[in-house]
Write a structure and sequence with these properties.
By secondary structure, the chain is an alpha+beta fold. The protein has helices at about 10, 130-145, 245-265, 275-280, 285-295, 300-305, 310-325, 330-340, 350-355, and strands spanning about 1-5, 20, 25-30, 40-45, 60-65, 65-70, 75, 80-85, 90-95, 105-115, 120-130, 150, 155-160, 165-170, 175, 180, 190-195, 205-210, 215-220. The strands form five sheets. Strands 10, 11, 12, 13, 15 and 17 form a six-stranded antiparallel beta sheet that branches. Strands 2-9-5-6 form a four-stranded antiparallel beta sheet, with no helix packed on it. Helix 4 packs across helix 7 (about 310-325).
């Protein structure tokens, strides 16, 4: 199985009446096998099912021959829906409800870079459902901005209802807009809070329901959170202009030589487990999304988490599973090519490690 995360901004127009998206939408295909061998798939959803008396009925939006079809699910849990495969094409969980629906949500914080005033700090704060499609759309919007931003890593998850929220800060900052609706309406451009401070950190940010004054999320941004200490990943070059020699290029060449000497492998050969371990150590919190993109099922991830408690070993076992199902093709180049769609979302160190193995260009 191979998954890639798609955007609801492309398919959301097919959700009519009271239908709402309930999780990420994926493009799914089979690798090296006929799709008829696949009987069912479990997709993650982001709905909060805390109230047993108001459990929704899930369905999936399935694109068949570029036409939308609503299909039933087999069953659901607190985190996934199970769908019986009819054909392979874009599929995502949806729910029909006339009432507001509570979601497992995330609050994403980005700091503006490059300000000429060293004592001023500007942030964007986004609200989103906890699903890969929404988060990926926000990442693309931030990267396309005329200004440069870094993501501030803070615990993001919270419960979000379809209500209005306001941002409260300590000390007081300039906040715009005054409040913001959390909505499941599918839009290309996401709304966000902008927070501006004319003094150094720390800053405490709190997300509060406008109507009830209930705080649903808070985090403190400290000085160390605002420091850039990683190398920005270079974009893939599309021209043939010759690059000038530099110390950084020599360092990359040296890295390539060291990796090649240690393994004794040509770049197209399957990766060794010690090389997969180097990648695993750098994956961070994105490893489950990497697993889905590499074609591993959620049940495989559940098995790994149940049998292995060490986080790094969980990531290594995931990569070994990928290697075992792509024997003869589990090269650095193949891994890098498979991750191209999400490479910009991964930690910089992943790109640097694969580049050092002559996998990424």
């Amino acid at each position: 199985m191979r998954y890639s995360v798609l955007s609801w901004s492309k398919f959301g127009t097919f959700l009519q009446d009271s239908w709402k998206f309930a999780g990420p939408i994926f493009n799914v295909d089979c690798v090296y096998k006929d799709s008829s061998v696949l009987k069912s798939i479990k997709f993650p959803h982001s709905l909060c099912l805390a109230d047993p008396d108001s459990e929704p009925t899930f369905s999936v939006l399935h694109m068949k021959d570029n036409r939308p079809v609503v299909e039933p699910t087999v069953e659901h849990t607190g985190s996934h829906v199970k769908w019986r495969v009819s054909s392979l094409s874009p599929v995502g969980p949806i729910v029909q409800s006339l009432q507001p629906v509570a979601h497992h949500g995330v609050v994403l914080v980005y700091k503006e870079q490059g300000s000429t005033n060293l004592n001023s700090y500007s942030f964007r704060i986004y609200l989103a459902t906890n699903n890969s499609s929404d988060i990926k759309d926000i990442g693309k919007e931030v990267r396309s901005s005329k200004k440069s931003y870094i993501k501030i890593e803070k615990p993001p998850t919270c419960k979000l209802d379809e209500k209005r929220y306001r941002l409260v800060t300590e000390p007081d900052g300039e906040i715009s807009p005054e409040d913001l609706p959390f909505t499941l309406a599918v839009t290309k451009l996401k709304g966000y809070f902008e927070a501006f401070f004319e003094q150094p950190p720390p800053f405490k940010l709190s997300l509060v329901e406008t109507e009830s004054d209930l705080t649903v999320w808070s985090a403190t941004i400290r000085e160390g959170d605002c420091v850039v200490n990683t190398v920005v990943k270079p974009r893939i070059r599309t021209d043939s202009r010759k690059r000038s020699s530099s110390a950084s290029e020599e360092e990359v060449i040296n890295k390539r030589a060291r990796w090649g000497d240690e393994s004794g492998q040509a770049p197209g050969h399957d990766m060794l487990e010690k090389q997969l371990l180097q990648v695993a150590r750098r994956l961070g919190k994105m490893w489950k999304q990497v697993a889905i993109v590499l074609g591993l099922s959620s049940s495989v991830l559940d098995d790994i988490e149940n049998t292995e408690k060490d986080p790094i070993m969980q990531k290594l076992k995931m990569l070994v599973k990928w290697k075992n199902q792509t024997v003869g093709k589990a090269s650095v180049r193949h891994l890098c090519d498979s991750l191209q769609d999400i490479m910009e979302d991964l930690p910089n160190e992943v790109y640097q490690t694969l580049q050092g193995r002559r996998g990424c260009r």
